[in-house]
Amino acid sequence: MRLSPILELSAALLFILLAFFFRSSNIFFKLPANLSVQVPVNLTSDYGRIIHGAPDAVLRPSSPVDISLLLKSIYSSPLYDEVTVAARGAGHSTHGQALAPGGFVVDMRSLPLSITIVDGDGTSYVDAAGGALWIDVLNETLRHGLSPRSWTDYLYLTVGGTLSVGGISGQTFKQGPQISNVVEMDVVTGKGEIVECSERENSDLFHGVLGGLGQLGIITRARIKLRPAPPMVAWIRVKHHDFEQFTRHGELVVNAGEVDYLEGFIKFGDAPHSHQPEDAFSRFGAERCVKPRQPTAYYLLEMAIYYDDDDVSDAARKRAKVLARVSSMTSVEILEVSYLDFLNRVREEELSLRRVGLWNVPHPWMNLFVPRSQIRSFHDLLLRTMSDSCNNGPILVYPTLAHRWNLNTSIVVPQDEAGEDVFYVVGVLRAAPPTCTVGTSCLDRLMQQNERMIRMATARGSSRGATCGLTTTTTCPGAEWWEEDGGGMGAKQYMPYLEGEEEWREHFGPKWKRFEELKAKFDPLNVLAPGQRIFKRKK
Ligand code: FAD
Questions:
Q1: Residue 270 pLDDT
Q2: How many angstroms does the Cα of residue 157 sit away from the middle of ligand 1?
Q3: Hey, what CATH class is 110-228 in?
Q4: Torsion over CA of 267, 173, 202 and 124, rounded to 10 degrees?
Q5: What gap in Å lies between CA 44 and CA 534, rounded to an integer?
Q6: Which of 12, 144, 340, 364 is the most exposed place for a label (fewest CB within 10 A)?
Q7: In angstroms, what is the span from residue 414 Cα to ligand 1's centroid?
Q8: Pick from 64, 65, 66, 63: which is nearest to 35 by CA?
Q9: Which atom of ligand 1 is closest in space to residue 133's alpha carbon?
Q10: Running DSSP on this structure, what letter comes out for residue 528?
């Protein structure tokens, strides 16, 4: 039997009114009590010191339930219809990714520092709070003779912060990035639901959150794979004068899998004749200001072999094998250090830069994944663009292996149609002089150099010649090379700084549709991580 049209209409109207009442009344969800409008100044910018923006309030959660309450309130009430929320880990982003200007910041460091070893199926894991620093995870696991397998170069970053971007270092070619070493997470979605997820359970959220730039949910716990911790590390650096030889050696070592870690560095200028041991292994230390008439550079291949004090001869054998591969006509330095000192190597440099006031300066960083076939072209572009500037901070260039990356996650790496397994990690990690603040021409110049290199590197095939730099091709550094070469490099940015949906669509490529669908499912109002500038907040 059919209801009369009037009754049908009234029922529909009643339904809409009730839905509106429940969303607008906010009777079920109150903002958590520990939301504070006292915003400390350190939450208004980040390590980059380029983007600034104060939130209206800060949540210092004492449990994931506080985060859930906040997000549920925002999702369910039109009172908060413009409010955005950013989780903030250690705030070591460089382009405002953890900021929420005019919104709410969730200070993840306030969550209880829970780090617990878990045994299962013959493997050990650690359950770490999303706001725990990796150095805390390392210290705790070492007490049990264990260690996570995959690292970042610097350990004062949070578990949630690096899992949201990828988490890479010299171990990645062997162990995969940090996001390939997680088996389970607790996530608070943009709708405020607390969800446990893994490869098997809620796998769309699990994969989407890993490398998902904080867009789908806030990680409050991650279960991370462990390995036995080696006590000692042979830390080796091999100097090269020729880029081809440097990349050939790096790839040989990575493919042979004989070392536990491999990174590489480009150094501007001529290699110093006499070595200064105290500087040999520094990376973030202030460089000499080199402005050669001709762009010149030398290259350092940095490797590490983990070993047990009980098995020194095995380490010596491995080392001899590796050096036989890479040391022809090159100089070699070796340090024997503890595993902890090796992994925590950047900390000393941080402290010494802090002492001279050079840590809290603007950091116009640029990170890229470059296809193997384009790494020579990228090297030439880098030298032409940067060699007339003062360059402080390391320039990392090293090979990694695509098959170690779980491509079901949200991370984006270059697609190689020829099926090439190797691609290159490039990090141009410059520190501007302290006077080079936002709005000064010196910082603008560094940012423009980055932008040009990024555009040239990330352009695809036929579009490449047309999109060089900010102006025309003739004013681009490296324009001669650009025009001679004529094709695209097809690189992808790591931790991109992009403006708006169009650029992000291009970045994600074939992964965009799925990412957009996941966003609509888990954060339909686009509340989370506005500093990434991917999706506009919906009312
Ligand atoms: P934040 O800067 O606080 O946040 C980063 C993003 O993640 C934001 O969008 C934020 O909203 C989101 N987020 C934060 N916490 C969570 C959470 N719990 N759940 C969901 N989303 C969250 N990266 C590497 O891969 N390898 C390196 O070797 C490396 N070395 C570095 C060295 C230094 C000195 C610095 C400053 C950075 C380095 N990075 C490196 C980059 C670093 O991994 C990223 O910037 C990372 O996001 C920083 O972590 P964080 O805890 O500071 O996150």
A1: 73
A2: 6
A3: alpha beta
A4: -110
A5: 20
A6: 12
A7: 21
A8: 66
A9: 51
A10: B
Using CB distances shorter than 6 Å, the residues near ligand 1 are 46-47, 86-93, 97-98, 108, 130, 152-154, 157-158, 160-162, 164-169, 213-214, 218-219, 495, 529, 531-532
Active site residues: 92, 153, 263
User: What separation in Å is there between the alpha carbon of 278 and the centre of ligand 1?
Assistant: 29
Residue boundaries of the structural domains of the chain: 110-228, 231-356, 361-497
Average pLDDT per run of 10 along the chain, which is 539 residues long?
70 67 54 88 95 97 97 92 96 98 97 95 94 98 98 98 98 98 98 98 98 98 97 95 96 96 91 50 52 75 93 86 81 94 96 94 97 96 84 92 97 89 97 92 94 93 40 41 60 94 95 98 98 95
Q: What is the pTM of this model?
A: 0.90
End-to-end Cα, the chain, rounded Å: 39
CATH of 361-497, one of 3.40.462.10, 3.40.50.12780, 3.10.350.10, 2.40.50.320: 3.40.462.10
147 CA from centroid of ligand 1 (Å): 20
Tokens of 265: 């560095």
Rounded Cα distance, 179 and 207, in Å: 9
Q: Return d(Cα 360, Cα 506) in angstroms, integer.
A: 33
pLDDT at 17: 67
Contacts of 53 (CB under 8 A, 6+ apart): 44, 45, 96, 99, 100, 101, 102, 531
> What's domain 231-356's superfamily in CATH?
FAD-linked oxidases, C-terminal domain (3.40.462.10)
Residue 289 has a pLDDT of: 54
Distances (CA, A) of 406 to 166, 179, 401, 403: 10, 8, 11, 8
Instruction: Please give the pLDDT value at position 431.
Output: 94
Q: What is the ipTM of this complex?
A: 0.99
